[in-house]
């Protein structure tokens, strides 16, 4: 009889393999989220601590005319506003042409606008460490010139490449070393994520959470909090800054739901189809060529007074790497709204996501909230031309609101940029299982899985995902009030 063929021995096996997914890590995150009382700073003392840090430092922001900007100039020929070093960012023009349809033959939209171009990839990093067997996260009381109350809880590190290479000739960024070449066994989150595609041109930041087991020296402007504590603070207006929210949304969490309306493959197929059917072409153009916008001594603004304006500020901040500087900021006109419609399907919570095109995105569309707009920009239009589902979330009765808070957007580039974040229970036709084109029902767990990859969820959707994760934590009496710092 023929002998059985035996494969030759191999010596190429790796010394060890590991699971592709660390489920224990997700359980540790869940434990931190379930821990409402931290080992170091009680939640009820956080706002008082922030107020104390504000009193301990000098913070001042003053609007100034463009002529008082130090080292910032309007470039001859293009009119672009940039720094003399060529670093940081520039205010330029953007020309956008958008078409829908499988062959790019759908309705055409075209516009020009000012836009912030910042090609550097910054680091948004949070250090994690176990205390009494529970993960805590190192948050910083950071001053940003554009936030309404100036001081909010931010990531451990929040720095552009110009900052951490000291282009500003200031002091070193504290605690940034663990994020440069992190130990791969200590990385919990590491993803390149987008920022506002309506205001930035192709802007990305590296969102990171890295666990440390070494000693971190006590620093005045830093505190350790559990996820449960942070979740409670997410119910407070203007307290957790945008950069912290986007990083926290990326944390892995255990998924114990039995399923979803769409399988992961179906959801990705739908999203890929949405990206394919949109044709969005954006190019940088000279700021001086942007029609419909007028430049004055103190602002660049739309001729109808809508959308946003470019302004200039002079800043003093005692706890920053540079204690005084001037810079331009983008200031929205009015408070925006970002809302998820929510419903249960088969006993599983789902939210309605929108495949939204924005001119400054790297790809054609990203997953966005059900509604994302500044209502005042559409007040002059008839109802059929207003954003879909806007009326479903405006003036909604309190009995259907599952979450609401006003949060500030990135205060290093935007001035008084605030959105009212809502999670609203869908009813009637708005809760249909077969939503309109461009929309799909997805579970928070599905969205959380997508945050492991860059440029799937936009920054407003990531904030709402962080808020969804915080909904299980009920705010204490008065927690919905303004932060008061």
TrEMBL record:
GO terms for molecular function: lyase activity. Residues 43-251, 265-468 form the dTDP-4-dehydro-6-deoxy-alpha-D-glucopyranose 2,3-dehydratase domain. DTDP-4-dehydro-6-deoxy-alpha-D-glucose 2 binds at residues 198, 293, 356, 372-374, 377-378. DTDP-4-dehydro-6-deoxy-alpha-D-glucose 1 binds at residues 72, 160-164, 243, 410-413. Coiled coil: none annotated. Residues 1-24 are annotated as: Disordered. InterPro entries: EvaA-like (IPR005212), EvaA-like_sf (IPR038153). Residues 1-11 have a biased composition (Pro residues). This is NDP-hexose 2,3-dehydratase.
